[in-house]
Amino acid sequence: MGDVLVLLRRDHAELRGALGVLVAADASDHELGDALEAVRLGLLSHTSGEGWLIDAVLDEVHPSAIVYLLCSQVLAAHFAQEAALAALEQARRGDQTFRERAAHLADLIQDHDKHEARCVIPALRDYLSRELYGELCRSYSIGRLRALGTIPLTLGTPGCRS
């Protein structure tokens, strides 16, 4: 059985990598454009995937108050990240304000990654049945694919059980 944390952390790392390009003072306009598009799509697919994951948890079981709290914190983090992305897109590409806003978004994603790894995922592992926890990979992957407008050809995903 795979662990959804592997998928979440991969997405967070990819987002931080693209944001690293946006922070770089020597990035070309073409590199900035590509990296900004990667952040837009990456954040969209990630937040959608986690939305599906949270829906799967809340639809299947009536979790404890702490699980509800942790799920609401994930959603709040996504709202903050989306607001930071909107602010980043308002700045002139490549200037100091743009780089500062990209660094801020990278910090938000880093904090989100740590929170999920230290609090959210361990709580889900403890609270959910082994089978339901194992299905979170599938829910997350389907949510990501739907956000990107793709249809899953197979429900198996690297890092998840097939």
Explained architecture:
The chain is an all-alpha fold and 162 residues long. It has one domain. It has five helices and no strands. It has helices at residues 4-23, 29-60, 65-90, 96-127, 130-147. The longest helix has 32 residues, at 29-60. It is elongated and about 50 Å long.
Pick out its properties.
single chain; 162 residues; mainly alpha; 5 helices; 79% helix; elongated
What layout of secondary structure does this protein have?
Elements: H1 4-23, H2 29-60, H3 65-90, H4 96-127, H5 130-147
Helix pairs in contact: 1-2, 1-4, 2-3, 2-5, 3-4
Short structural summary:
By secondary structure, the protein is an all-alpha fold. The chain has helices spanning 4-23, 29-60, 65-90, 96-127, 130-147.
Content-based structural category: mainly alpha
Tell me, briefly, the overall form: elongated
Topology as H/E string? HHHHH
> How many domains in all?
1
Summed over residues and divided by their number, the pLDDT gives a mean of: 90
Strand content: under 5%
Please work out how many helical segments DSSP would assign. Answer: 5
Report the radius of gyration as a whole number of Å.
16 Å
Distance between the termini: 8 Å
Q: What is the number of beta strands?
A: 0
Low-confidence stretches: 155-159
Largest sheet: none
Helix content: over 70%
